[in-house]
Amino acid sequence: MSGELSPIDKAKYVAARRAADMVEDGMRVGLGTGSTASWLVRCLGDMVQNEGLNITAVPTSIRTANLARDVGIHVVTLNEARWLDLTIDGADEFDREFNLIKGGGGAHLHEKIVANASDQMVVIVDKGKEVETLGAFPLPVEVLAFGLHTTRALIEEALISVDVLGRSASLRMSGDQPFVTDSGNHILDLHLTHIGNVRQLALLLNQIPGVVESGLFIDICDRIVIGYGDGLVEVRDINDGTVEHERFDFLETENLFTDLDA
């Protein structure tokens, strides 16, 4: 496997593998969406099939649900599970205070609901996702299709009053059509470059009619698992302030992930 994976894919894999070890038998687990979360689902599927791990999973997207079923994980809805022990998900950016930008995969609404319905949220990332200040990655904002252009104008006007460097919003596309989320909404990506006050911005966006949810995750993440391309994994815990390190070896015989899109 080590000859087939790029350093960033190795980093994603070891982060997912370390987080999978946090899942215990009988747990109800929220499964995130995106490339790093897909590595996690494959790891958990391997544990289900080869180690007898018994879990109930709530996926945050149709894509994740399909993958989870394919690898043998028992999938239910959040309404059926009601409450979760743990949610494991990726992130597009994170800062030292564990604030996140999520939504690059278009599932941040479901991801935020599932994460808030969990005792703990663990975020799995490669080292490149760490930033001093959020905002370089475009901030996704899920909006209703009704009044879309009005909502976009209201957002751009509201951004004048907050500490950001950019104020443009672009409609996310899928080919020549607007991207549609699993909830039937659209996404505006805000090109802010720098977010000086994440709490102020989150509050402001949630007050705008037509906005369903932003990709700012604040006071939700408990642990961050950071993978490196050489197999090193760093686990940071915001609640007890600890930082732990572990190293994984890449085995040539491992082929579990050879068919997984990066």
Topology at a glance:
Elements (H helix, E strand, L loop, with lengths): L6 H14 L7 E4 L3 H17 L4 E4 L2 H9 L3 E2 L2 H4 L4 E4 L3 E2 L5 E2 L6 H9 L4 E6 L12 E5 L4 H11 L9 E4 L1 E2 L2 E2 L7 E6 L6 H9 L4 E4 L1 E2 L5 E5 L4 E6 L5 E5 L15
Parallel strand pairs: 1-2, 1-4, 2-3, 4-7, 7-15
Antiparallel strand pairs: 5-6, 6-14, 8-12, 8-13, 9-12, 10-11, 15-16, 16-17
Please name the defining characteristics of this protein.
single chain; 262 residues; alpha/beta; 8-stranded mixed β-sheet; 7 helices
Q: Could you explain how this protein is built, in words?
A:
- β16 (232-237) and β17 (243-247) form a beta hairpin.
- The model has no long low-confidence stretch (mean pLDDT 94).
- The protein has helices at residues 7-20, 35-51, 62-70, 78-81, 108-116, 148-158, 198-206, and strands at 28-31, 56-59, 74-75, 86-89, 93-94, 100-101, 121-126, 139-143, 168-171, 173-174, 177-178, 186-191, 211-214, 216-217, 223-227, 232-237, 243-247.
- Strands 3-2-1-4-7-15-16-17 form an 8-stranded mixed β-sheet, sandwiched between helices.
- α1 packs across α2.
- With 262 residues, the protein is α/β, with parallel strands linked by helices.
- The protein is globular and about 55 Å long.
- It starts with 6 loop residues before the first helix and ends in a 15-residue tail after the last strand.
- The chain has 7 helices and 17 strands.
